[in-house]
Design goal:
By secondary structure, the protein is of the alpha+beta class. The chain has a single domain, classed as Enolase-like, domain 1, CATH 3.30.390. The longest helix has 14 residues.
């Protein structure tokens, strides 16, 4: 029980760039034979990072870094999360909350946030996870339906 409680305690190293983590790491999940899907999003693809890079050239490069989540491939529950980059400690908060309250990545991806923000990585990772769940049959039906509605 104590190990599961400790895994929900987030930490952050305040370096440039910051490094923040909560939950399990891949090595431990592999050792326990726990299946997981690793999803990664590079901050270079964030629109907010691009605007920050232009406006804040003296600060930590806003385009540097990434967010990586380890997700249960069946339920979408977040097993662990690592963020490296500008304000990583603040960006980890919704991941820690989702893990504590057992909110899956699919549900977290429905959260409406201002645009552009650094927290857009949540929606992008949720979209990536949802794409892994799309079976070939469902993809075919979706293509057929979209073709008929045009």
């Amino acid at each position: 029980m104590l190990a599961s409680i400790n895994s929900l305690v987030p930490w952050c190293t305040y370096t440039k760039p910051e490094v923040a983590h909560v939950g399990a790491v891949r090595r431990d999940l592999d050792a326990a034979s726990t299946p997981c899907k690793a999803l990664r999003f590079d901050f270079a693809d964030l629109d907010r990072g691009k605007t920050d890079a232009v406006l804040d050239a003296q600060d930590v490069p806003a385009l540097d870094g990434y967010a990586e989540l380890l997700v249960d491939p069946k339920s979408g529950q977040i097993l662990g999360g690592t963020i490296v980059g500008k304000d990583a400690g603040e960006q980890l908060a919704p991941i820690a909350l989702a893990m504590n309250q057992r909110i899956g990545l699919g549900s977290l991806g429905t959260l409406v946030l201002p645009y552009p923000t650094r927290s857009e990585y949540l929606r992008r990772l949720a979209d990536a996870w949802n794409r892994t769940r799309l079976t070939p049959r469902a993809a075919g039906l979706l293509r057929w339906w979209l073709g008929r509605t045009r």
